Write the structure tokens for this entry.
Amino acid sequence: MTDAVQSAIAPYLDELTAIRRDIHAHPELGLEEHRTAALVAAKLTEWGVEHVTGIGGTGIVATIRGTLPGQRAIGLRADMDALAILEDTGIPYASTSPGRMHACGHDGHTTMLLGAARYLSQHRDFSGTVQLIFQPAEEGRGGALAMLGDKLFERFPCDAIYGLHTMPGTPVGAFGINTGGFMAGGCIFHARFKGTGGHGGSAPHLSVDLSIVQAHFVLGLQTIIGRNISAFDTAVISVGHIGGGAIESCNVLPAEITVGGTARYFNPTVKPIIENRITELAHGLAALHGATAELMFDWVAEPLVNQPEQTAVAAAAAISVVGTPNVDTKSPPRTGGEDFAFMMREKPGAFMFIGNGVNPDGSFHGVHTPKFNFNDDIIPLGVAYWAGVVEQELKLRA
């Protein structure tokens, strides 16, 4: 099957590559993907693919109906948003928006799904309907929930849904999936500590030194995993931001310090433990030193659970593209978060990883780093995979 699909898309593979690089050069944050959405809509219109825009803000759903009889419908989803990262790849088509970058491969995800839309619109020998979901705001800005709030599945019914994500460090031509919990649920948290501030040289004893509060708080966070959560439950708590005071006034004790970070979990019972203990630590340590604390939690993802039936379909689709030896059906779970999990809470589905490649020396640049770049060599493999999912779900079943 893979040879037929890749032969069919070969005449417009250069165009797909150009689309991917254009999206890469013009990154947009979640719910701001106006240019990206316009590009997607323009291509769908050019190729004669029925679609609806503005779903959940900047989301798009394209609908392709097969020519064979059948009522089953499936959803194929790709994300469109970028990250607030300063790019350092040095490539000719690097970001033209300083501080914005496609550092997670969403430019490639969107392109592969566009390629599938074009292929499927020309090869409709399947039964039922394919909904191609171009989702905004996967990176913590609530895109999946926004689309669901806009009645995604009521307007575009799906019996099963599928997602695909690039994986750096995995060879080109390799796929990975597993049944059950595959990606973590998680949150972004902020703890804001407030005190009196003061002069750190002449009168620190008359001040509330928030640097001590935040230092104990950051260390205390690491005790939650080892002492409040079972050793059999995987969880992660990390601090990614500490802010307070001014670099020009290092002799001044700040009156406010903010600590921000992320937490990840798989077992749903762990979620309240994380939130309760972070809250208790912040308030307790603040009170101990005469300060106050304010907490904010934004639970941006829940555990992503691959269902057995859809996992088998996804694995069979990948095997049809690259062969059994290149498809790992026992790929280990990742503590990365993925808000596709909110869609999978509504519909049974499966989430697959596709290898982004490894350098000859074994090195690679991970996602969410300034040097990451999606590998254009995997575009045809991704398109063929999507065609394989449709074949497994709507052709072989029929």
User: Anything to note?
Assistant: The chain has two domains: 2-179+307-395, 184-301. The radius of gyration is 23 Å.
